[in-house]
Input
Amino acid sequence: MACNSCSTGKDGQPKGCKNNGTCGTDSCNKLTVFDWLSNMSLPNGEKPFNWVEVRFKNGRKVYYKNPENLTLSIGDIVATQAQSGHDVGMVTLTGELVRVQMKRKNVSEDDPEALKIYRKASQKDIDIWSAARDKEEPMKVKARQFAINLKLQMKISDIEFQGDGSKATFYYTAEDRVDFRELIKVFAKEFRTRIEMKQVGFRQEASRLGGIGSCGRELCCSTWLTDFRSVSTSAARYQQLSLNPQKLAGQCGKLKCCLNYELDTYLDALKDFPKSDVKLITEKGKAVCQKTDIFKRHMWFAYEGEWMNWHKLTVDQANEIIALNAKKKKAQSLEEYASELIEDTKAEFENVVGQDSLTRFDSPKRKNKRRNNRNKNKKKSTNNAK
Output
């Protein structure tokens, strides 16, 4: 994921804008929306939609009204309204697609308290904004040290300055409620600015910071995932995954969001499966489920007391035995049903290349001419001796 100005250089660093994915062309940013309506013209008499989407640090997006009808395009730096002063952000979406996104995120167009766009950012605005962002990293180191000194059970994960530099928002995570009144006094005295503390969840923290998951790709929460649904261990049980917290937990320390991606498919496939705790009653004895193969729709059962001998049945065969047991009848044995399950283990391959030899690309062996010549000379000498 890189645009022309952010292509990687020799040392692995961004080659052009050096902003690590926050460049002005907006083609390699997190949570970017492709404007597929940009090349379509509006019908006659229709005015362009006067709302725009503006992105701030770490993918935070806010929708602003454009009352002055400024000509804005994706990548423009704008000064926007804030609770006090103004903020500076980048336009990431304009036009009719903004209306679709606002409807999707339940943002009302008729809100009388809607925030507005003041102007396109001047060079002075950009300089103040850049200077404020340069302060964030050293401030974060000091802020964490202050929290440790006060023995607060919290982690300050990020700091975001307002565009005019008048306010700093401290994002933190904590397991329980934290009394940070003393901490705010220390921050205000040290940093000489207005302080706002905002608690975020562990998943939100991971989405803000980003990273690489165990799959080798960027985190879903920092690239495209916007809603965080609760994930339970039952999702792993339904998919027959080992309940190993080290493998099931993501970088946020919580269960991975991707456990929910295929859960609905597994639940649909398991609808006609009998429950694993249901016992099959036969004349030979009771059988208990040992293993289930959801994809091949097979189940393995073993008699009580004969745990080493497993008998493979299909889901339909297991349901048939359960139906007999419901009528207070016993099946003869599991072997009778297992013998009906005939498997063709022979693999048939088609010759799509036209050649079957596995050694067709090997170089042919060279004959040893010297050895052949020696044998011929020996034969001649023996004949002459005779």
